[in-house]
Amino acid sequence: MLFRFRMPMESRQTRKTIYHFSALVTERRICGEYETPKRPQPHTSYDRAQQSMHFMIYVHAKMMIVDDECIITGSANINQRSIDGAKDTEIAMGAYQPYRLSTKEPVRGQIHGLRMALWYEHLRKLDKSFLEPESLEFVRKVKHSVEEYWDLYACESLDNKLLSHLLSYPIGVSSDGEVKELAGLENLRTPKVEFLNPNLD
Q1: Residue 44 and residue 192: Cα distance in Å, rounded?
Q2: HSE-up of residue 50 (Cα within 13 Å, Cβ side)
Q3: Which sequence ranges form a coiled-coil region, renumbered to this chain (predicted)?
Q4: Phi, psi at residue 54, to the nearest 5°?
Q5: Where are the domains of the chain?
Q6: What confidence score (pLDDT) does residue 165 get?
């Protein structure tokens, strides 16, 4: 997932205007549930994923909420090719609430309510800063939460129960713009993947 935040130029520093997230899930073992009789080879990525019940979430659906006023959602990519209906076999819908746009008060309709509900689902918390997602305070709080959840996910213990499924994408950016993988990747229980393509400059 990619979120872009617009900020005053004087506030822009590394990783403040663009932030990448990962979506993962931790499932809980249920007493008496079915278990496959054949176990994976020990100490493999598959074995570690089975033990920890940690799995990546692959999201095909797309959704964009603009200023709590308009929403586009569906399977189509949000671009001309996918949405104009002449090429890709995808579907999308757009909606807005016109009676919510005619006042100077902040928009607080159903689209706003959906955005707030989604943040709660992703982070398992709400904060007054979520009312102003363009603010630096909001970005800092979300950044703190997703990095905290990443640290829990990437630590050596397999017993961590994640409350949130929104984590920081495991890359770091130095003050001079160099992109690196975060520490802790060696402990991942999911199949090993390269988060940075070594063939790209």
Answers
A1: 10
A2: 14
A3: none
A4: -105, 125
A5: 2-30+40-187
A6: 78
